[in-house]
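Internal QA ticket QA-208
Title: Verify multi-chain structure generation after dependency bump
Assignee: T.L.

Test input:
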Amino acid sequence: MSLVRAFNISMSVDGFVAGPDQSIDHPLGLGGEALHEWVFPPGGVSGTDAEFAARRERGVGATIMGRNMFGPIRGGWGEGDWRGWWGEDPPFHHPTFVLTHHPQEPIEMAGGTTFHFVTDGIESALARAHDAAGEADVAIGGGASTLRQYLRAGLVDDLHVVVVPILLRHGEPLFADLGDALADYRIAEHVATDRVSHVRLVHSRTVE
Amino acid sequence: MSLVRAFNISMSVDGFVAGPDQSIDHPLGLGGEALHEWVFPPGGVSGTDAEFAARRERGVGATIMGRNMFGPIRGGWGEGDWRGWWGEDPPFHHPTFVLTHHPQEPIEMAGGTTFHFVTDGIESALARAHDAAGEADVAIGGGASTLRQYLRAGLVDDLHVVVVPILLRHGEPLFADLGDALADYRIAEHVATDRVSHVRLVHSRTVE
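Actual output:
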């Protein structure tokens, strides 16, 4: 069964998944890069951390992201020459749906990634992503606001949170404004390593 | 040097250190008991978790707590026959200062615990606790609101947070309304076990 998953959602101990003041120099907000150092430690990631980090590579056929994850541009797309943070060969390698209020033609990148721009809401984006993924899973890439919208709507089957021992103090919280959406989730997995704690939340309807 | 410490502050993955609707039946709020199961697992606590759990027993000469941690009574003390949640021999064994707006005579318990009621604020309570503790440390027992007040005022030297893989969804957050107080803290220790992650925040002025 095709599931909706979010992988490697790295959260500071004080609850933030991105720092404040995202910009072209700070795609993850001020201080936000430290959230992902567990994936890129000196000497390379290994063991349990590596196993978790690699899960996003397996069985995912489409990704959805918010426009802030796609780029630093706000409002209209202007000249339309922004092609994402990731260079010409982004790490998705499948159709990738960007939520926006501003229509834009699809952008085909190298390596199988095509960015599609969806202007009619999160459910429409999910339907298109499921179509594109077929039997494979759909990943919610982020950022925080997009993920919270899908959580609030009860549309995420599997959420992998990585609790990172840093303090950000400001930024984008993960667990905020979710109403009672989390009442439908259980902790399905908890594995701690020297660097972080991996916690996986699974929706009660979800058969793994 | 005498330090101000908070021990075993157990926080759900979604950031709460107590559940909602504290009452005489639910001293830690609805669902809040699950925060402390790591201290009382079947078979008893052991290893790293036991070592952390026991730190509060060592070198502490006074405790400060909010009135909600002392009891479920709100407003005035009424008949004054409430003597805390812990029975006749509370686990503090030293002078214990309860923050309240309502004066009350000290209550002497068995085992060395005397509850003193402080009506003139957190700094006064801390001064009295330091006096009582002498060379020993002062513990901020909780609850969340009291701890946040001391953090906001920059008065906590050492905060031991235990991230517990449960979801509470509602209740008392730890990291909220702290302004920039956390800018003065560093992560001094991070140790994960099968059950929880221990994270220790230490103030930048603090010499351990």
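Spot checks passed. Chain A has a mean pLDDT of 94.
Status: verified.
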